[in-house]
Amino acid sequence: MGDAKLYVIPASHPSRTAMLMLERKGIPYKRVDLMPVISKGVLKAQRFPGVTVPALKLDGRRVQGSREIARELDHVQPDPPLFPPDPQQRLKVEEAEAWGDPFQHKPRQIIWWALKRNRAPMAGYSEGARLGVPVGIAVKTGGPIVALSARFNEATDENVRADLAALPADLDQIDSWIKEGVIGGPEPNAADYQIAPSLRLAMSMDDLRPFIEGRPCGELANRVDPHFPGRMPPVLPPEWLEPLRPLSSG
Ligand SMILES: N[C@@H](CCC(=O)N[C@@H](CS)C(=O)NCC(=O)O)C(=O)O
């Protein structure tokens, strides 16, 4: 394997999907940390077709998107595999992985909504990142980036409330895949790597962690992505969390 360079945003969950898969394959890579928003210009300048991370340069080829990266990694280095060899099982893993891609957007919207109200936790989410400026300065001057990211990602009250209301059914879906053995096996597959970082981003929020960590999906997330950075103190209006409470009267 020659040269691998991965463009990421710190604490971006699909970026972690790509990092975990590269690590699983034992492929050494150089990580390039980008600030959100600014990332788009850098990726364009690097001639990637799209403007999102993760984006990978592998032996001169450009591969963008966590699912595309999973396939490319299995292609260039089949062992250990990210997809099961049995076609029926592979279909199920691909189905769970495909579901996990749009699922990313829910914790993304919730975290940008939260960071707009409290920017201080950005330092924790940027832990270990090399952003070209000290993390403290990036956080202090990050207001416009957070505002723009919240806008681009449509992190509105209405959308965040809908994301939270949908979360119990989403967690049930993930738990049922674990029960079925599609994900959560001893050898993580592409769907484990797709879904676990989204759960970890949600679990980085004090508001949401208690509703996830005791469940099979929470255990899976901690096992597959044990070092997700950052922690967001409570910030969501308690009534928005009502749909998550098992004994909710509403
Ligand atoms: N679903 C795609 C897209 C990933 C995506 O939307 N990444 C976000 C970060 S989590 C991004 O690059 N946003 C641009 C920005 O924040 O400026 C994937 O899995 O690769």
**How much beta, percentage-wise?**
5-15%
- Strands, total number: 4
Based on secondary structure, the structural category is alpha+beta
Fraction of residues in helix: 40-55%
What does this structure look like?
With 250 residues, this protein is of the alpha+beta class. Helix content is 53%, strand content 7%. The chain contains 12 helices and 4 strands; from the N terminus they run βαβαββαααααααααα. It has helices spanning 13-25, 38-45, 66-76, 87-103, 105-117, 122-125, 135-140, 143-152, 157-180, 190-203, 209-212, 216-224, and strands spanning 4-8, 30-33, 55-58, 61-64. The protein has a 4-stranded mixed beta sheet, covered by helices on one side. β1 (4-8), α1 and β2 form a beta-alpha-beta unit. α5 packs antiparallel against α8 (143-152) and α10 packs across α12 (216-224). The longest helix has 24 residues, at 157-180. The mean pLDDT is 96. The structure holds glutathione. Glutathione (GSH) binds next to α1 and α2.
